[in-house]
Specification:
By secondary structure, the protein is mostly helical. It is 73% helix and 0% strand. The longest helix is centred in the middle third of the chain and has 21 residues, at 28-48.
Length: 97
């Protein structure tokens, strides 16, 4: 673990103290660690769409394919299980690559 020193003006410190008092975090350390974790998650989300940003025509094609496929069917547990299996197979395949 690394120790960091930061400086906050009184208004920012008061805000963090209110967050701690309200039980949204246990300490100043927890508060800032949470901010960093949130930023890491947001960064991952921001980058997860990069493929569609680079290939919007592919996204448009897939959307049109969905529209053209006919009436919607009910979503079942079997559908969800099949997608979970495909995702896990893809992840395992990438991990072994």
């Amino acid at each position: 673990m690394v120790k960091l020193n930061i400086q906050l003006d009184d208004q920012l410190k008061a805000f963090v103290d209110q967050e701690i008092a309200a039980g949204r975090c246990r300490s100043l350390d927890d508060y800032f660690a949470g901010l960093v974790r949130d930023q890491i998650r947001q960064s991952a989300l921001d980058h997860s769409g990069d493929e569609w940003d680079r290939h919007p025509e592919e996204l448009e094609r897939l959307i049109q394919e969905g529209y053209d496929s006919g009436d919607p069917a009910p979503w079942t547990k079997a559908d969800a299980d099949q997608i979970k299996r495909r995702v896990m197979e893809k992840r395992l395949g990438q991990a072994g690559a």
